[in-house]
Amino acid sequence: MTADFQNWTNSCQVRIETFLEARLPAADCVPERLHKAMRYSVLGGGKRVRPLLSFAAGELVLADVERVTVAAAAVELIHAYSLVHDDLPCMDDDILRRGKPTCHIEFDEATALLTGDSLQTLAFELLAEKCLTDAPEIQLQMIAQLALAAGSRGMAGGQAFDLDSVGKTLSLPELEFMHIHKTGALIRAAVMLGARCNSRLDDDQLSKLDHFAKCVGLAFQVVDDLLDAEATTATLGKTAGKDAENNKPTYVSILGVSQARELAEKLQHDAGQALDSFGEAGLRLRQVTDFIIKRKF
User: Fold this and answer.
1) Cβ–Cβ < 8 Å for 145, 192
2) Which of 36, 155, 232, 269 lies most in the core, judged by the most C-beta atoms within 10 Å?
3) How far apart, in whole angstroms, are the C-alpha atoms of residue 108 and residue 103?
4) Which helix (H) or strand (E) holds 97?
5) Residue 62 belongs to what domain range?
């Protein structure tokens, strides 16, 4: 990782953390327990990969960074809500997230459920109350895109497919379909919302950017499966080996470690090709993609 990219990453992470800390309800605001749980679940952890993609896409179109910050925060709130709910006993039943007890362990199941609900609604509150683009119709499209990415035809639907697939043998296309929704939809939204904070791209350019995001979303999941199989709990900050323990189909269980790595590299290559027409403007997106592929936790 170059020093320039590391400095940029640190700057973006500080920016999003500062914004979220200011925008989340204060811990002493009634109802205190819920607001403490919201802050506990969002602040002080995570690589902020989705915001990084939003900021990189914003740079591609020379968007106002203040506007991109709001879009990035909305996506991160949706992601945080999904983690809180995914960790519940009725879902993945996990006790560790980002190196600390999961929300329902630290608080309780009811509070965790309400925390996820509240983080999700806060995301849409941000998108609705802030001016993110000079074209109101585009802002409405951005709100609709995040809703689609989070709902039954996106992340929630992918999670339903995931729960239904436990103990089953999926084909590679079926696994890809699941993760295009469960993981990929929100990553695609992160990229597209960042880019749409400036409406300078035509339909063809938006299509290429969306294809880039689709490849990155799948690559992210392939690497996630590899890490779950090979990394330790201490390194990951969450329970390692859960997929195999729960008999979940993964890229590793279907392809094996070697072929899964090859697939991640192919997806990275395809993502890079989708950016070719953008030239140097796509540098940050390429760097974030490299960061995703090579991450160790």
Assistant:
1) yes
2) 155
3) 7
4) strand 96-97
5) 3-294
* DSSP codes of every residue in 230-241: HS-HHHHSS-TT
pTM of the model: 0.94
* The token pair that represents 101 in the structure block: 């007890």
Q: Read off the pLDDT of residues 213-248 as tens digits, 9 standing for 90 and up.
A: 999 999 999 999 999 888 777 667 767 677 777 788
Name the residue type at position 20: L
Closest by CA position to 195, among listed 65, 57, 71: 57
In a 10 Å sphere around its CB, with 0-12 CB exposed, 13-18 middle and 19+ buried, how is residue 283 labelled? middle
116 with 81: CB under 8 angstroms? yes
Distance (Å, whole) CA 40 – CA 4: 31
Chain CA centroid to CA 31, Å: 28
**Tokens describing residue 241:** 């080996």
The 10 Å CB-count burial string (b at 16+, else e) for 259-272 is: ebbebbeebbebbb
Residue with tokens 């500062």: 18
Residue 169 has, within 13 A of its CA and on its CB side, a CA count of 2
> How many residues would you count in the chain?
297
Q: How far apart are the first and last CA of the chain?
A: 15
How does strand 96-97 pair with strand 100-101? antiparallel
- At residue 96, what are phi and psi to the nearest 5 degrees? -135, 135
* C-alpha torsion sign, points 77, 124, 86, 153: negative
Domain count, the chain: 1
Predicted confidence (pLDDT) per residue in 144-165, tens digit: 999 999 999 999 999 999 999 9
Strand partners, 96: 101
pLDDT the model gives residue 27: 97
CATH classification of the domain holding 223? 1.10.600.10
Stretch 85-110: mean pLDDT, rounded? 95
Q: Which of 116, 113, 151, 158 is nearest to 248 (CA)?
A: 158
Q: How many whole angstroms separate alpha carbon 271 and alpha carbon 273?
A: 5
* Per-residue CA distances from 135 to 64, 101, 132, 197 (Å): 14, 43, 9, 9
